[in-house]
Specification:
Chains A, B: One of its GO terms (molecular function) is oxidoreductase activity, acting on the CH-CH group of donors, NAD or NADP as acceptor. Chains A, B: Keywords: Oxidoreductase. Chains A, B: InterPro entries: ADH-like_C, ADH_N_2, ER, GroES-like_sf, MDR_fam, NAD(P)-bd_dom_sf. The structure is a homodimer. By secondary structure, chain A is an alpha/beta fold. In chain A, about 25% of the residues lie in helices and about 25% in strands. The first copy, chain A, is built from 9 helices and 16 strands. Chain A has helices at about 50-55, 130-145, 160-170, 180-190, 205-215, 230-235, 260-265, 285-295, 315-320, and strands at about 5-10, 25-30, 40-45, 75-80, 90-95, 100-105, 110-115, 150-155, 175-180, 195-200, 220-225, 235-245, 255-260, 270-275, 305-310, 330. In chain A, helix 6 links the parallel strand 11 (about 220-225) and strand 12 (about 235-245). In chain A, helix 2 crosses helix 3 (about 160-170) and helix 2 (about 130-145) crosses helix 8. The interface of A and B includes residues 257, 259, 263 and 279 of A. Strand 13 (about 255-260) of chain A pairs antiparallel with strand 13 of chain B, so a sheet runs across the interface.
Chain lengths: ~325, ~325
């Protein structure tokens, strides 16, 4: 049997920004399976902020995508052919299968088998995938929120932030979101159940607004931005506050310096810790065990912006990086 | 029985620096004991950096010493009279008894009973007291050093720092001290067993010197200073590094800003946590259980600078704050 695979390869490095034309469509024959291999037909591809780092050749936590190689991506696919004893035709799997129609696997790139009865297949890319696991481990293990505490989330309407807010809410916390548009602020309140929300772009007194939103101070801060927003949140830390550092996109080039944090950390006996989901993906099933009941109970709202067809993936990434997306960016094949 | 107590009271706030003359000698009659009380005769008084904060009226983790009140201080004393069922004449105790000859206690200010057979009484003020407990909990619980890891200590020759270095050494770590004089650097190597030491005052390339001293990077940093020294150490953090923030004396007034730490914390998945010993003093016996065997095995060198007589305590504090002391400052009564 001869089968064609269409894929998107990385043709260029960003110069300096990432545009759709650094990716190129390519076609190849699917190589016949060896023993111990199986063939995955991708149904949904993921588009994630982490791709910003993967396409550069800067030192990172994971090697860069090579020029000419298929773009790295999480995906949900179906086993359509198998010479592997543990994977059966008709099973669904989640893993780093790349921006392509088909992927040959030996099992080493499988994060977990997906249960189609858990909900729409696509949620395994976010609510029950890397996004959800980021929120789950970053919040519950580093933030360790307790009932009645106040949890602040930056990029509160984002794929990760909205999960963090909802998990914290389900644990009985007061949740306060910080976001960058009135539309996102509205979604924070109406869809993600935050108790209060701030638009940092229109705020004239961010600290004052935070004081009103957090009358009992801040116990847990899930930070996706760093920079001046984080300075403001830290000024409200309670004794014993915990902070998860999950992203640093808010450090503008002219803001690499800022207030030293040591005195606040000492006076408040606070803890901050950097979090990278790739250190924890081998425990994905553990996160899903925590997230799946919340999802079934209707406590994890989300929205998806679906791009149709493999060739639309680069546009999806552009949209995500520009912040014009409405929800988790997904490519449907 | 009428008995006189001599004490040092706080007569003035620092203006702005702390000098011996903000304290005043006073005499009083010891009030007769009520049921549930006992009388302590102090043998050794402690002089600690924390006193810098206690004599100001700035907001702090503990209320300021009131004007006219006896100066707050840890001390080791002997029970000389008792109407308390749990404290017997002849027993030795450690607690916040103040800069005075006698203290009446109801037991609430007792940190622990001291065993005179553990060594010289005075070590209960430092090696087996607050100093040792600071090093023990701050290093072992936040730093969590593992055999073979590299542990860096700032104010490496100080009362706390020297304990940290020796506990880490006893756990099989490579220990690197940062200190501010060649004499202290010599003591770090010869007395406290550091594997390498840096004098930050004479260093022309602190990061370069650290790279040489820490060929495998930095896994644990016990920080007593913050500021530029800490910036340098953090640049060598390994993935998963842990940092205990125990003091911030290195933040000069013109250095309240510095490099933002979030990116380093994220990329290195590092953890930093503020540590205040007063949160942990109720667990002092636990620290002593860890420290006492090390002391008995000769693995905890220390030096004391003894000031003779109650009236010398303010001079001892001046010496400590000026950094001219040689070892733990103690007042012998």
């Amino acid at each position: 049997m001869s089968m064609k695979n269409n894929k998107l390869v990385l043709a260029d490095r960003p110069n300096p920004s990432i545009s759709a034309d650094i990716f190129q469509l390519a076609e190849e024959q699917v190589t016949p399976l060896s023993d111990g291999q199986f063939l995955i037909k991708n149904h949904y591809l993921s588009v994630d902020p982490a791709m910003r780092g993967w396409v550069t050749d800067m030192p990172n936590y994971i090697p860069p995508v090579e020029i000419g190689a298929v773009m790295r991506s999480f995906a949900v696919g179906e086993v359509v052919e198998s010479k592997h004893p543990d994977y059966t035709v008709g099973e669904f799997v989640y893993g780093l299968f790349g921006w392509q129609e088909f992927a040959v696997s030996d099992g080493s790139d499988i994060e977990r088998k997906v249960n189609p009865s858990d909900g729409p297949l696509s949620i395994n890319l976010h609510v029950l995938g890397m996004t959800g696991a980021t929120a789950w481990f970053g919040l519950t293990e580093i933030g360790d929120p307790q009932e009645g505490e106040t949890v602040v989330v930056s990029t509160a309407a984002g794929a990760v932030g909205s999960m963090v807010g909802q998990i914290a809410k389900a644990r009985g916390c007061r949740t306060v979101g910080i976001t960058g548009s009135d539309e996102k602020a509205r979604r924070c309140l109406e869809e993600f159940g935050y108790d209060a929300v701030l638009n940092y772009k229109t705020a004239t007194d961010l600290v004052g607004d935070l004081v009103k939103a957090c009358p009992d101070g801040v116990d847990v801060y899930f930070d996706n931005v760093s920079g001046p927003i984080t300075d403001a949140v830290m000024s409200l830390f309670n004794i014993g506050a915990r902070m998860t550092i999950c992203g640093v996109i808010g450090i503008a080039p002219d803001q690499v310096n800022g207030p030293r944090v040591s005195r606040t950390m000492l006076v408040k006996r606070a803890r901050m810790q950097g979090f990278l989901i790739f250190d924890h993906m081998h425990r994905l099933s553990e996160a899903v065990s925590g997230l799946q009941p919340l999802y079934q109970a209707g406590k994890l709202s989300f929205s998806e912006e679906i791009f149709e067809g493999l060739s639309s993936a680069p546009k999806g990434l552009e949209s995500l990086l520009a912040g014009t997306n409405q929800g988790k960016v997904i490519v449907r094949l």
